[in-house]
Task: inverse folding
């Protein structure tokens, strides 16, 4: 990986000065003497949200599990830990997280900061598990947020990297569980009109994949939580789709070698919730990503609006994924007080062409109050985006309280959060 680019290679950072501290004291010292600084996770953001004109900081060496609280069912970790490493530790201790994203190599702090999510009508995004946080402020002092004391953690959990350096996070955890996964192929889009709720709630986690070449979903991934060691039995058909005869990859034509086990074979939660195996860490992205959230009650209409753009979308697309996310109380989450459906696009690396299509998608989705993922590509004007966040004024106050001089803000945050 080029150290001066993001994971996918589509974004070049404005500075090559990268600090990798090994202790909390070093983090505080680096932050205190810096003028402008941003934290890098696994570089999985596709836009400038983590960019800095002067200095970047990585927590890759601050990646330990600090404490396991069995009495309150919580785990405390350092900000640089990745989900893949945390999941193995938790499972060995008999615990689990409520959900995971598609890729296991991303950091806990980075995923929470950008409202990253998995799928499931009852599963809120990953930041919803945050119980408390420790942050290094712009002056190098420590700041703490906790659900035990105040509402502020709802503002800080999805902090967009603007509050400071998240050096410690405590997450709510649940007992470990087993899962099984089935994939069905060729679900007609029209079948969602009458059965949307039944289809999307048919398993603990449900994902719909399409290349938008036709009005259908190429694949439906159903991740079932096993109860008392009993796997859910699935028939040969699912609302007009047929069960896949072998393991498949979400992108047509790709081998399923790196995908999580399917075919109803039982396995631990952390080996089924992600779409890809824990040991599979992408080495080169060569892709672009966009994602838009819409209220669940209008999701079918939103998908039909996207379907009308098939001829523009499909030539540029690897695959599109549709996932469900439960509402939360997090100020800067796209799912704030709203059950949502996320429509994700994994594009081929043709930014000039994709840049022409995104405004078309955003225009078609605007009647549904569509909100873009913070860390992916979009072209929505700042004023339109800001209007979607009811708690933005409160978040601005929190930003100014933690970082009055804007040390952790950059062009992206100034444009989309602070500009009137």
Result:
């Amino acid at each position: 990986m080029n150290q001066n680019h993001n994971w996918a290679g589509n974004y070049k950072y404005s500075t090559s000065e990268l600090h990798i501290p090994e202790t909390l004291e070093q983090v505080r010292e680096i932050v205190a003497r810096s003028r402008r600084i941003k934290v890098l996770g696994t570089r999985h953001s596709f836009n400038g949200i983590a960019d800095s004109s002067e200095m970047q900081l990585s927590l890759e060496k601050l990646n330990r599990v600090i404490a396991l609280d069995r009495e309150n069912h919580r785990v405390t970790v350092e900000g640089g830990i990745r989900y893949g490493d945390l999941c193995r530790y938790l499972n060995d201790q008999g615990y689990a997280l409520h959900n995971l994203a598609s890729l296991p190599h991303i950091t806990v702090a980075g995923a929470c900061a950008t409202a990253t999510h998995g799928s499931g009508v009852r599963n809120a995004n990953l930041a919803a598990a945050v119980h408390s946080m420790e942050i290094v402020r712009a002056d190098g002092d420590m700041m703490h947020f906790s659900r035990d004391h105040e509402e502020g953690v709802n503002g800080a959990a999805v902090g967009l990297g603007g509050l400071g350096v998240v050096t410690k996070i405590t997450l709510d955890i649940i007992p470990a569980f087993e899962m099984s996964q089935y994939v069905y192929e060729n679900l007609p889009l029209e079948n969602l009109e009458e059965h949307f709720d039944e289809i999307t709630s048919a398993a603990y986690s449900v994902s719909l994949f399409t290349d938008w070449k036709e009005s259908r979903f190429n694949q439906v991934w159903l991740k079932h939580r096993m109860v008392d060691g009993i796997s859910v039995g699935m028939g040969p058909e699912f609302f007009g789709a047929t069960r896949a005869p072998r393991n498949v990859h979400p992108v047509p034509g790709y081998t399923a070698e790196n995908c999580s086990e399917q075919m109803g074979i039982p396995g631990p939660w952390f080996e089924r919730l992600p779409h890809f195996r824990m040991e599979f860490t992408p080495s080169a992205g060569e892709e672009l990503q966009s994602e838009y959230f819409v209220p669940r009650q209008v999701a079918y209409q939103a998908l039909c609006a996207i379907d009308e753009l098939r001829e523009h979308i499909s030539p540029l697309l690897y695959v599109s994924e549709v996932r469900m996310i439960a509402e939360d109380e997090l100020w800067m989450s796209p799912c704030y007080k709203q059950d949502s459906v996320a429509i994700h696009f994994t594009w081929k690396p043709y930014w000039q062409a994709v840049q022409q299509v995104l405004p078309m998608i955003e225009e078609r989705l605007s009647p549904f109050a569509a909100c873009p993922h913070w860390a992916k590509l979009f072209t929505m004007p700042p004023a339109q985006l800001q209007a979607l966040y009811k708690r933005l004024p409160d978040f601005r106050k929190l930003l100014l309280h933690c970082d009055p001089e804007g040390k952790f803000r950059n062009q992206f945050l100034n444009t989309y959060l602070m500009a009137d």
